[in-house]
C-alpha cells in the first residue's frame, strides 16, 4: 500500500539518522522503530520503540501543529441576508476540513513570490445559496463550488461500509434568505490556527508494565481477598482464574497507573508483590485524521518535518563547533 | 465644507435630489415597527413618519466585505 510504504521509508530514514552516527543511540537505545498496530481510513495506531520521551513528544507536537494543510482563510461577503452575521459564518467556513493531499504544490502565503494572492498560494471557491421555494434550507459543503481546477475540495466523509456520509452542515436559511460569498483557501499549519491541524486526536502514551508475584498473592491472600483484588482494578487488568483460584494478569495494556492495586497490596502487607511502571522506550500513538490527509500520510509527513528540523539543528551545531553527537 | 463630498461611504444615501437641494446628508434606516425605509439627518427626531415607532435599524453595508476566517 502506498501510505505504508511511505511510512517505512520515512522510518528507515529516521533509523539512519538516529542510529548511524552513534551505532547505538543515546542512553543505549537500539535503532528507533515504528510498528503499525492498526490502520483504517481515518485512524492509525502505532508503536514507537527505542526512542526517548523527548523524541516521541516532538513527533506528537509536530503531528498536531506543524503538518501543513489547506483551510479557508479569507471570506468575501457579497450578500448575507441570513440570521447569522458575517463573522460567525466566516469562522465556521474556516473550520471546514479541506482535502489537502496536494498541499505540497502550494506555497505558504507569506513565503509566496506574489504580492497578495495567486494560484500558487491560494484556492478560490464560491458559496452561493438561495432559499426561494422552501421554508427552510440547509447550506452544506456541497454548496461550496471551486472556481479553479485545483484538487482542493471540502472533505467528503465515507463510513465503514464505504457509503458517503451527509456533507458537513454549515448553516440553515429560511425562506427568501440568501448567501453569496467568495472564499479563499490558503496553506497553513496548526501553529498559526487550529483549523489547519490535520488531526482530531493525537494521543501518545507510554506502555504500562504491571507485574504481580502470583505465588505470593495466591499464598498470602484468602480467596475472598483475591477476588477483591481482582475487582478493585477499574480497568480490569487482573482476572480471577476459577480453576486455579488464582489472580492472573489479563490485560496490562489497559492499566492507567491509578495505583489502587498498590494501595491494596500495601494494606495487606504485600508491598513487593505488585509492581506498576511504565516503559520508557515504547510509546503507543493514536492518530485520528480529520479527513484532510490520510492518517499514515500525516505521520510520514510529521517524521519528515522532524528529520528536517534535526538536520538543521545538526548543521547549525557543527557551524558553531558543538559536537553534534 | 461641502457635505456631499465626504459621503463616499456606502452608508450615506445620496441621490440626485439631495445633491441639488444641498440639504443635510440623510441616512436611510429601517423602521423597527413597520419596516419601511426612513431618511433621517443628524438633527431629525428619531421617529417613524409612517407609524411613529422610535427604534430604527441600520441598513447593511453594500460594499464587498472581507473577513479572516479565524
Ligand atoms: S494501577 Fe490501577 S489500573 Fe493499573 S493495574 Fe493497578 S489498579 Fe489496575
Ligand atoms: Zn502567491
Ligand atoms: Zn414605521
TrEMBL record, chain A:
UniProt-listed GO biological process terms: transcription by RNA polymerase II
InterPro entries, A to Z: DNA-dir_RNA_pol_30-40kDasu_CS, DNA-dir_RNA_pol_insert, DNA-dir_RNA_pol_RpoA/D/Rpb3, RBP11-like, RNAP_Rpo3/Rpb3/RPAC1, RNApol_insert_sf, Rpo3/RPB3_RNA_Pol_subunit
Cross-referenced Pfam families: RNA_pol_A_bac (PF01000), RNA_pol_L (PF01193)
GO MF annotation list: DNA binding; DNA-directed RNA polymerase activity; protein dimerization activity
Annotated ranges, domain DNA-directed RNA polymerase RpoA/D/Rpb3-type: 43-316
PROSITE patterns, sorted: RNA_POL_D_30KD
Keywords assigned by UniProt, alphabetized: DNA-directed RNA polymerase, Transcription
Keyword Ligase (UniProt): no
Cellular component per GO, a single term: RNA polymerase II, core complex
Segments passing through the bilayer: none
Matches recorded under HAMAP family: RNApol_arch_Rpo3
Family: Belongs to the archaeal Rpo3/eukaryotic RPB3 RNA polymerase subunit family.
The protein, known as: Rna polymerase ii core subunit
Organism: Stylonychia lemnae
UniProtKB/TrEMBL annotation, chain B:
UniProt keywords, alphabetically: DNA-directed RNA polymerase, Metal-binding, Nucleus, Transcription, Zinc
Major site of localization recorded for this protein: nucleus
Gene3D superfamilies, per the entry: RNA polymerase ii, chain L
Annotated GO biological process: DNA-templated transcription
Entry GO CC: RNA polymerase I complex; RNA polymerase II, core complex; RNA polymerase III complex
Organism superkingdom: Eukaryota
Entries under InterPro entries matching the protein: RNAP_P/RPABC4, RPABC4, RPABC4/Spt4
Compartmental location: Nucleus
Molecular function GO labels: DNA binding; DNA-directed RNA polymerase activity; zinc ion binding
One Pfam assignment: Zn_ribbon_RPAB4
Family membership noted in the UniProt record: Belongs to the archaeal Rpo12/eukaryotic RPC10 RNA polymerase subunit family.
This protein's name: Dna-directed rna polymerases and iii subunit rpabc4-like
Top-level taxonomy: Eukaryota, Sar, Alveolata, Ciliophora, Intramacronucleata
Encoding gene per record: Contig2865.g3068
Amino acid at each position: 500500500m502506498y501510505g505504508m510504504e511511505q511510512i517505512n521509508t520515512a522510518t528507515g530514514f529516521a533509523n539512519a539518522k538516529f542510529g548511524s552516527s552513534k551505532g547505538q543511540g543515546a542512553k543505549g537505545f537500539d535503532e528507533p522503530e515504528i510498528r503499525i498496530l492498526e490502520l483504517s481510513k481515518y485512524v492509525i495506531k502505532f508503536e514507537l520503540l527505542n526512542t526517548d520521551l523527548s523524541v516521541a513528544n516532538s513527533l506528537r507536537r509536530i503531528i498536531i501543529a506543524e503538518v501543513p494543510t489547506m483551510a479557508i482563510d479569507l471570506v468575501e461577503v457579497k450578500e448575507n441576508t441570513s440570521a447569522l452575521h458575517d463573522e460567525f459564518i466566516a469562522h465556521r467556513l474556516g473550520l471546514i476540513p479541506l482535502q489537502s493531499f496536494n498541499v505540497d504544490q502550494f506555497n505558504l502565503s507569506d513565503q509566496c513570490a506574489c504580492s497578495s494572492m495567486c494560484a500558487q498560494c491560494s484556492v478560490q471557491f464560491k458559496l452561493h445559496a438561495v432559499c426561494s421555494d422552501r421554508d427552510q434550507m440547509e447550506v452544506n459543503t456541497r454548496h461550496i463550488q471551486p472556481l479553479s481546477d485545483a484538487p482542493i475540495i471540502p472533505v467528503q466523509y465515507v463510513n465503514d461500509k464505504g457509503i458517503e456520509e451527509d456533507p458537513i452542515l454549515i448553516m440553515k436559511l429560511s425562506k427568501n434568505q440568501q448567501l453569496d460569498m467568495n472564499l479563499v483557501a490558503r496553506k497553513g499549519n496548526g501553529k498559526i490556527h487550529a483549523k489547519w491541524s490535520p488531526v482530531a486526536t493525537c494521543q501518545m502514551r507510554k506502555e504500562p508494565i504491571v507485574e504481580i508475584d502470583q505465588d505470593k498473592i495466591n499464598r498470602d491472600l484468602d480467596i475472598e481477598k483475591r477476588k477483591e483484588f481482582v475487582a478493585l482494578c477499574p480497568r480490569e487488568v487482573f482476572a480471577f482464574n476459577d480453576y486455579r483460584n488464582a489472580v492472573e494478569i489479563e490485560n496490562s495494556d489497559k492499566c492507567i497507573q491509578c495505583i489502587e492495586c498498590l494501595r491494596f497490596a500495601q494494606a495487606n502487607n504485600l508491598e513487593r508483590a505488585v509492581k506498576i511502571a511504565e516503559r520508557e522506550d515504547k510509546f503507543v500513538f493514536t492518530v485520528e485524521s480529520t479527513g484532510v490527509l490520510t492518517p499514515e500520510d500525516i505521520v510520514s509527513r510529521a517524521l519528515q518535518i522532524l528529520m528536517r528540523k534535526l538536520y538543521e539543528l545538526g548543521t547549525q551545531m557543527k557551524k558553531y563547533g558543538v559536537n553534534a553527537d | 465644507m461641502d457635505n456631499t463630498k465626504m459621503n463616499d461611504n456606502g452608508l450615506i444615501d445620496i441621490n440626485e435630489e439631495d445633491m441639488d437641494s444641498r440639504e443635510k446628508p440623510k441616512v436611510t434606516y429601517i423602521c423597527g415597527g413597520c419596516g419601511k425605509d426612513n431618511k433621517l439627518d443628524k438633527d431629525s427626531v428619531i421617529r417613524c413618519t409612517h407609524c411613529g415607532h422610535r427604534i430604527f435599524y441600520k441598513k447593511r453595508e453594500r460594499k464587498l466585505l472581507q473577513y479572516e476566517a479565524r
